[in-house]
Amino acid sequence: MPARWPACVATGLATPNTVAAHAIYLSDAEFEAWPDHGIAIAHCPASNLKIEARTLPLARLVGRVPIGLGTDWTVTNNSMDLLAEARLAALVGKMRADDPHGAAGAPDGAHADASTARACSASTG
What residues does 69 pair with on adjacent strands? Predict the structure, then answer.
């Protein structure tokens, strides 16, 4: 496991109160340990594709951790359109999972996961 993961656990950052932005550089060991800590992820596919030419492999984490959608900021996302982001997340998620019928990254779960990620599910549904 990379040296950063034990540091996150030791300092108390690896908790359900943490929202990780992007999370596109997770190691295999981190993918396995991530759900144990309940850390949410803010998934910003347009920004990730524009700057890093990679995205979060959603199929590995959907249903295991809260994943919310984000647009990042105007420098890395020209439109700031959350619906376009949801569409892109669904399409790229299917491509990365190599499953044209799968729902990895589908926007129907984005609202519920995002509210859980921000710890406001009781007020937003």
Answer: 43
Which residue from 4, 40, 1 is spatially nearest to 22, judged by alpha carbons? 40
- Name the superfamily (CATH) of residues 4-124: Metal-dependent hydrolases (3.20.20.140)
CA-to-CA dists, residue 61 to 78, 81, 114, angstroms:
27, 24, 14
What is the overall mean pLDDT for the chain? 80
> 105: how many CB neighbours lie within 10 A of its CB?
30
Q: Tell if the pTM clears 0.85, that is, is over it.
A: no
Number of H helices, E strands in the chain: 6, 3
The model's pLDDT over 3-19, given as tens digits with 9 standing for 90+, comes to 677 888 889 988 999 99
**E strand map for the chain:** 19-21, 40-43, 67-69
> Which structure tokens are listed for 58?
């959603």
How far apart CA 33 and CA 2 sit, in angstroms, is 12
In total, the chain counts a number of residues equal to: 125
**How far, in Å, are 6, 19, 50, 79, 122 from residue 34 at the CA level?**
12, 12, 25, 30, 24
